[in-house]
Amino acid sequence: MTNTMISRLNGVRPRGKFITLEGIDGVGKTTHLQWFCDRLAERAAQQGARVIVTSEPGGTPLGNMLREILLRQEMRCETEALLMFAIRCEHIATLIEPALTRGDWVLSDRFTDSTFAYQGGGHGVSIDKLQVLEKWVQGELQPDCTVLFDLPTKIAYSRRSGARIPDKFERKSDEFFARTRAEYLRRTAQAPERFAIINAVDSIAKVREQLEVILMTI
Ligand code: TYD
User: What is the CATH number of the domain that holds 80?
Assistant: First the structure.
């Protein structure tokens, strides 16, 4: 008998599942977010749980205030990394951990892999320092499943060049995004059991087929 079944029999809701979405700007994550969220909610409902959707940088009132500064203000990349973890500290304590403890599932549009990819890979902040912050802020908390939308940087660039005025991150160079993508891929190789990689070059329908397969495993 699984832990989930034992908890149900005891009338206790099992701990919720923590799912994160990742990828460089322009991979099409936003296009699939609502659809994925609806399908995940169906999946969670089968197990008697609800889905709380959140995002980083942000997720709390303080996080949203800091997000505005982060997306607009130039700053040292170490400062940027520290702010990302400060936002995350608040996010985990006030939203993510209470939800998981209640038995809700949490879907976060970006989490710590973004900091390793953008600040670590893209900007060159020491990975060792980021690991110290990760341990400090998260303890043992890690996503149960991380869906990485992967796309060559040139295609991501052409998808990014839409009408909206780009923020500070979206204006970065192709080389920056190549380093960011490389760090994402390096992380997937380090924790293959946690990551599901989506080939985001595919059409919307084909990407959804890939997501359906992942949903069956969550
Ligand atoms: P957002 O508009 O939410 O972008 P997206 O829709 O692509 O998620 O902006 C978030 C930006 O912040 C995005 O460019 C990635 C960046 N970011 C980091 O650099 N480090 C981080 O730790 C996080 C969470 C985001």
Answer: 3.40.50.300
